[in-house]
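Protein modeling request. Please complete all fields; requests missing the sequence field cannot be processed.
Requester role: graduate student
Desired output: 3D structure, token encoding
Chains: 1
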Amino acid sequence: MPHKTLHLEQTLTTLGGRVTCQRCQAKSKRTKLQCSAPALKGKRVCKTHGGRSTGPKTEAGRQRCAAAKIVHGNETAAKRHERSEASARLAVLEMVGHTFDFMQGPKTRGRKPKRMDEAYPELQLCFQNLVLKNRIS
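Delivered output (137 residues):
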């Protein structure tokens, strides 16, 4: 399927060509056409597509918005946390395996997971003690 670049018109001419204003940047999911209404003053979208929205004003409203944004399809905060912990456990096991030559081959590239200190704390403590003993002797 070829990739199509979206070209949205920026301005809209109304009142028989006498007034030029910003055009709403919203696009229809069904028809893939740009909205033909003018955008509200200082906004990118018309009143139908959320131009009148001012966003949450209270702290409770901001927290509700933040909580609502962590779910996207099958992606939830709990699943993200679970995946992060699994990645950290794998990184700890890989670190131990490569240090003591249990594993061969390249190490996983990229940054280390944030939760490495939470994954297998007793294994990491034993690992640090063994590494210290090896350095001393």
